[in-house]
TrEMBL record:
Residues 1-20 form the signal peptide. Residues 22-103 form the Cytochrome c domain. InterPro entries: Cyt_c-like_dom, Cyt_c-like_dom_sf, Cytochrome_c_Oxidase_Subunit. GO terms for molecular function: electron transfer activity; heme binding; metal ion binding. This is Cytochrome C biogenesis protein CcsB. Keywords: Electron transport, Heme, Iron, Metal-binding, Signal, Transport.
Length: 103
């Protein structure tokens, strides 16, 4: 019984989604282009644009990848799809790490 529970727990842990683990310092270097709309400090400078400062890292990764893959089509997609298309998956993870750690 104990062995079965251990195997079940291990299988559950290994099946959980992988959390993003980007490099915030590298993300800071890529974030300059984001500042035009989302502010140098991650606080949006244009009404209706989202603040990125302190946003959930995995949410940012998923959102940017959805824009990149043209799966996110509402709102600001016309602006964000070309921006995200220029980013590698590593760039996306780094940007998400940078903005998520801002306080």
């Amino acid at each position: 019984m104990k062995k079965a529970m251990t195997l079940t727990l291990a299988a559950t842990l290994f099946s959980l989604p992988v959390m993003a683990a980007g490099d915030a310092a590298a993300g800071k270097g890529k974030a300059a282009i984001c500042a035009a709309c989302h502010g140098a400090d991650g606080q949006a400078v244009i009404p209706g644009y989202p603040n990125l400062k302190g946003q959930n890292e995995l949410y940012l990764v998923n959102a940017l990848k959805a824009y990149k893959n043209k799966e996110r089509t509402g709102g600001n997609a016309m602006l964000m799809q070309p921006q995200a298309a220029m980013l590698s998956d590593t760039d996306i993870e780094n940007l998400a790490a940078y903005f998520s750690q801002m306080q």
